[in-house]
Design brief:
The chain is an alpha/beta fold and 207 residues long. It is 33% helix and 19% strand. A 7-stranded mixed sheet has the order 3-2-1-4-5-7-6, with helices on one face. The N and C termini lie far apart (34 Å).
């Protein structure tokens, strides 16, 4: 928890309680279903929770904002963001049913009322959202092709509606068609830990 409170100093007691509960919940679920790499579970807060929360350093979603977490896996970045923004609505989708079960069980256990998770492929998601978020799901051009149908026309935030994704590695090829529109922010801008200096980036592409 210390690493979360270091960067998010205005959490309510309820938010602190919800975030603190994630460790035991994910350890328990990880023993049944491998949602996080076994060797990485001890780094849950730095590599998964705080990593997801980087999105909240790039944008402060206004109340009523609707966000789709595309390919949410076990609930990242959707669950940490839903904790941070209780007045926003989150929908989490993934093509693997057992991972969606984990999302729903974790959300229920910590009392998240602003999140639904559904076993669904991105191509079949018909809803309209202000933002789509994701963590290293697929190549950016492929992802944009699938989600272009899912953006609302009218925005209500400081950033125009669009995709906010977390990625690592060399993104030169992936971003070549988006050079003029994509905004790339190294996560080391937000967090000082060594892990975030290893080519970890936040990409914003307006719809």
């Amino acid at each position: 928890m210390n690493i979360i409170e270091k960067y998010f100093t205005h959490l309510t007691d309820e938010q602190k309680k919800q975030i603190a509960a994630l460790d035991e919940l994910y350890r328990d679920w990880n023993n049944k279903i491998n949602v996080i790499s076994r060797k990485d579970i001890d780094n849950l807060y730095e590599h998964h929770v705080l990593h997801s929360m980087a999105i909240a350093k790039a944008i402060n979603f206004r109340p009523g904002t609707e966000i789709l977490d595309f390919g949410c896996g076990g609930g990242f970045p959707g669950i940490p963001l839903a904790i941070l923004f209780p007045e926003c609505k989150f929908k989490l989708i993934d093509g693997t049913g057992k991972k969606i079960r984990v999302c729903n069980e974790v959300a229920s256990a910590i009392g998240l009322k602003n999140l639904v998770a559904e076993h669904l492929r991105g191509e079949d998601e018909k809803g309209k959202y202000d933002f789509v978020v994701s963590r290293a799901v697929m190549q950016l051009p492929d992802l944009m092709k699938i989600i272009k149908k899912n953006f609302k026309k009218k925005g209500q935030n400081a950033l125009p509606n669009g995709l906010i994704c977390l990625k690592g590695g060399n993104l030169q090829d992936e971003l070549k068609d988006y050079r003029n529109v994509a905004e790339i922010t190294p996560l080391s801008t937000f967090f000082e830990e060594e892990w975030f200096k290893q080519d970890k980036q936040l990409i914003y592409v307006p719809a």
